[in-house]
Amino acid sequence: MRLNKFLIACVFSTALLMSCDKDDDPGFEPIPERDRTEQEIEDQEALKAYLETHFYNYEDFENPAESFDYTIRIDTINEANSDKMPLIQSDLLETKIVTRNEVDYTVYILKVREGAKDQPKFTDSTFVSYRGELLDRSMFDNSVTPIWFDLTRTIPGFGQAMTEFKGASGFEILSDNTIKWENDYGIGAVFMPSGLGYFATSQTTIPSYSPLVFTFHLYGVNEADHDGDGIPSWMEDLDGDEVIGNDDTDADNLPNYIDTDDDGDFIPTREEIIINEDGSITFPDTNSDGTPDYLDPKN
C-alpha cells in the first residue's frame, strides 16, 4: 500500500518553506533588489565563514547510543570545544550548483545518511521533519512531526537538497496508529544562499537576503502527477532546467504539469499517450513529425 493511504490526514504544508510572492499592493513602493550575482558572492563568504566556525554532532552518529534520535545538531566552535571538526572539513559535505535567474548558486549539502529507497525528483512530494535556522543559529521554523512537502512549492534550495537523498526502506503501523520508520531514512542538512531562499522578500522571522540552514530527516517519497494526465510531473520539464513553471506548450498560462491538455487541441493529454502494463509511457507521433501527439496540436 502507498504511504499516503495511512497518512490521509496529512496535507501539504503551508509553513515557511513555501515560496512567497511579493507584495502586489499598487500603493507599495518596492525597494530595488540587489544584484543577484553580487549578493551570491556576499552570501558565499558568509556561508564559508559559518562552515569554518561550526560543527555538527558527528561523534553521536559514529557511535550512536541506544536512545539517540539521529538528529543533526549544529553548534559553534569555541574554546571549550576547539577540538571539534568544522563542517567545512567533513568528508560528508558536498557542493551542488543550482542555476536560477541566470546565476549559478552554490549549495552545501551535508549527507550524513543518503537513505535507502525512493529518491525524489524535483517535482515530487516528500515526507520530512526539519529545522530551519539563520546563520546566527536562531530558529525560524521547525517540525518534529513529519510533514508532506510538494517540492514544486518549496524554496528552491530546499527542494534541490531533497533530490540528493532517499526515503526509508519501509515502515510499520503500530497499534496506536503511529508509524515506525525503518532506521535507514535520509539524514542531512543544507546550507543555502539567499538567492535559493527568499532573497529580497523578508518573512516574519527571516530578514531579506538571508542565507538559510536546514537540517532534516527524509522518510517518504510520492511521485507527483499534479494534473493527473498520466505523465509524472518531472517528465513535463521539457527544457530540462528543473523549473517546472516555464514549460507551457500551448501558451495558455497553465504550465504543462498542471494542464490536462498540453497542446491545446481539445484532446486530453491522457488520451494521446499510452501507459504500458509495466508503468512505462509510450508517446505516439501519429504524423511522424518528431513531436509526440500530446504536444502537437496538428497531429
From TrEMBL:
Q: Which domain of life is it from?
A: Bacteria
Q: Which reaction does it catalyse?
A: [protein]-peptidylproline (omega=180) = [protein]-peptidylproline (omega=0)
Q: What is this protein called?
A: peptidylprolyl isomerase
Q: Which organism is it from?
A: Salinimicrobium flavum
Q: Where does the record place a coiled coil?
A: none
Where do the record's region annotations for Disordered lie? Answer: 278-299
Outline the extent of the PPIase FKBP-type domain.
123-222
Query: Keywords in UniProt for this one?
Result: Isomerase, Rotamase
Q: What InterPro entries would the database entry show?
A: PPIase_dom_sf (IPR046357), PPIase_FKBP_dom (IPR001179)
Enzymatic class: isomerase
Q: One MF term in GO for this entry?
A: peptidyl-prolyl cis-trans isomerase activity
What's the Enzyme Commission number for this chain?
Answer: 5.2.1.8
